[in-house]
Amino acid sequence: MREYDDWGLATRGIRAGQIRTAEGEQSEPIFATSSFVFKNAAEAAARFSGDEPGNIYSRFTNPTVRIFEQRLAALEGGKWCVATSSGMSAILAVCMGLLQAGDYIVSSRSVFGTTTVLFNKYLSKAGIETTFVPLTDLPAWEAAIRPETKFLYLETPSNPLTEVADITALAELAHSRGALLLVDNCLCTPALQRPLELGADVVIHSATKYLDGQGRCMGGAVVGRAKTVGEEVFGFLRSAGPTMSPFNAWVFLKGLETLKLRMQAHSENAMALANWLQEHPAVAKVHYPGLTSHPQHDLSNRQQLTAGGIVSFEVNGGQAAAWRLIDATRLISITANLGDTKSTITHPATTTHGRLSDEEKQLSGISEGLIRIAVGLENIDDLKRDIETGLERA
Asked: pTM value?
C-alpha cells in the first residue's frame, strides 16, 4: 500500500511525492541542473542500462519534475505520470508512444482545435488515420471502431460547449473492442473528476491551465498504468525530449497545493454566472453542465463533483455582436488561455478553433456568436457588471 492511498484529495495535493533532502526543506527544492554525478563508472553504467534506478539527465529524470509527476498520479489515482513541456506535447507523446503506421484513432469531434490539426495534418503523415464522431453519440463511436483502432480520444467536458461524455460507457465500449480510452481531464482536473476510476486507461492534462491556476507556466502530463505510460510514453519522452523544466514543475507543485479549493471556487462563480446569463434577454443560449437545461446535466452530476469553471454562451448577431461584447469588457482579460484566477474571455470561432474549416466548426457546434468565459475567482458581481456592459453593446 502506498503511503498516500488513505489520504484525502487535499492532502495528496499538498504532500504526495515529496522526499526531503538532507537540508530539511519545507518547500520542494528546484533542481536546476542538466545532469547528475555518479559515484563511479559502474553506477553510471547501471543507471543508463536501467539496472539501477536514479537520476541520469534532466531530459527524463529530474527530482523536482518527479515530485510533480508522483503528486499528480496520486491525485488522479494512476500508477505512473510523465510530465511534458505542454499539453499538446502530452498528446503527441501518447500518440507517438502508443501508435504506429496503420493504426486508427476514433476521436470526439469536440476537441481542442489544435488537437484536430495534430491528428489530421501531422499524424496522417505517419500513416495514422483519425475519424471524428459526436462526443455524446455512443452508437456513432461504436460504428467508427475498426479492428485496427488503438484508442478512443475525448475531452469531457468539451471546450468550449461543455458537452459531457459518459466515460464509463465509452470505457466499456473501448475495452470490448480491444482499444484504450484516453480522456483529456483539463477542464475538471482530479479535483472534480477522476476518469481512471470511471474506466479510462490514460488521462491527459495541459498543466498550463487549472493545475497551475495562475497563468504562469507551460506544461503537460500523462497519467495511467506503469506499462502504458511508464514504459511506452516515457520511452518517447526519453528519446524525443518534450521535457518539463524543473522550474515549471515547481510552479505546478504550488498550484496543486490549492487545486481543490480553487476548483470549488471556480465552479461556484461559474454556476452563479451561468444562472444570471440564462435569464438575460440579450443571451440566446448558455452552455454549462450545472444548469438543468444542459443536455448532460444528470450525467455531469454523476461523474463530476461540480460543473467546473467554463461557461459559454451565444448572442444573436454573429461575429460582429460577439466581438462588440468582448471589446466592451474592461475587467475580464481577452485571451484564449483558461484556468487562471483571472477571468478570461474569447471568441472560439476565430481563436481556439480558428484553424478549423467552416464545415468542421459547424459540425462541432462552434457558431460565430459563441463566446467562452473561463470564470476566475474575482467577485461575481464585478464580473456580471463587466459582462453587462458588453451585452448592452452586443
From this structure: 0.95
